[in-house]
């Protein structure tokens, strides 16, 4: 079976995490950086999760999982050390067509959480379809070396330029041509070697030249 890769917008979406241990804490932190409304169900919490609850970043119901916890939920992650609970969460989600990930239990997952390289708005996601999280982690480390934080700044710059072109260039054909040519191999190599100023200059030149063409 081939998996369909997708990036979800979780802003203000209710996401449920079942479990309050270290693994659950990692999952909550990943959801938090995406702007999700996070609900945690667990009898106990790690100090880190408790701190997030105290700061109002996470909603917490102290107790064991109940089917009613799924109400209005967009996405679920089950990260307990209790197989019966994890299985119940997965089964309930499948019946309700709610996407669910059960940690370290691929057959009960409707999605897998990839290993991700974060570079600002640029995200590189690696998945082995649950076959080898270790391999995904090794690939992530290699990509972290190949794609320095400079790529994050450059991606944000491109976003600004793209918005300016869309607002200022009224001719659709010329606008499409500019956007298509904003980045090439030479520009990519400049960013990779840390020469951000020259990379930005090339992008600005593309905009200037194309706007001046009749």
From TrEMBL:
UniProt xrefs under InterPro entries: Met8-like, NAD(P)-bd_dom_sf, SirC_C, Sirohaem_synthase_central, Sirohaem_synthase_dimer_dom, Sirohaem_synthase_N
SUPFAM superfamilies in alphabetical order: NAD(P)-binding Rossmann-fold domains, Siroheme synthase middle domains-like
Entry GO MF terms: ferrochelatase activity; precorrin-2 dehydrogenase activity
Protein name: precorrin-2 dehydrogenase
Keyword annotations from UniProtKB, A to Z: NAD, Oxidoreductase, Porphyrin biosynthesis
Sirohaem synthase dimerisation domain location: 152-202
EC number assigned by the record: 1.3.1.76
Pathway info: Porphyrin-containing compound metabolism; siroheme biosynthesis; sirohydrochlorin from precorrin-2: step 1/1
Pfam annotation, one family: Sirohm_synth_M
Gene3D superfamilies attached to this UniProt entry: NAD(P)-binding Rossmann-like Domain, SirC, precorrin-2 dehydrogenase, C-terminal helical domain-like
One GO term of the biological process aspect: siroheme biosynthetic process
Source species, domain of life: Bacteria
Nucleotidyltransferase in keyword set: no
Domain Siroheme synthase central per the UniProt entry, residue ranges: 119-145
UniProt catalytic activity: precorrin-2 + NAD(+) = sirohydrochlorin + NADH + 2 H(+)
């Amino acid at each position: 079976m081939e998996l369909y890769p997708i990036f979800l917008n979780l802003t203000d979406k209710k996401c449920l995490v079942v479990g309050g241990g270290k693994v659950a804490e990692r999952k909550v932190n990943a959801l938090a950086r995406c702007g999700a409304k996070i609900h945690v169900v667990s009898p106990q919490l790690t100090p880190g999760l408790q701190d997030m609850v105290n700061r109002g970043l996470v909603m917490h119901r102290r107790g064991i999982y109940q089917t009613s916890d799924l109400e209005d939920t967009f996405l679920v992650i089950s990260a307990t050390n209790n197989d019966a609970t994890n299985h119940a969460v997965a089964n309930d989600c499948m019946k309700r067509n709610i996407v669910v990930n059960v940690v370290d239990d691929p057959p009960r997952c409707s999605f897998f959480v990839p290993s991700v390289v974060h570079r600002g708005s640029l995200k590189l996601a690696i998945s082995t379809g649950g076959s080898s999280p270790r391999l995904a982690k090794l690939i992530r480390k290699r990509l972290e070396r190949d794609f320095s934080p400079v790529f994050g700044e450059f991606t944000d710059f491109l976003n600004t330029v793209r918005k300016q072109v869309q607002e200022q260039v009224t001719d659709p054909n010329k606008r499409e041509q500019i956007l298509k040519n904003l980045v090439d191999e030479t520009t990519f190599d400049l960013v990779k070697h840390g020469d951000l100023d020259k990379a930005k200059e090339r992008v600005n030149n593309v905009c200037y030249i194309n706007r001046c063409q009749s």
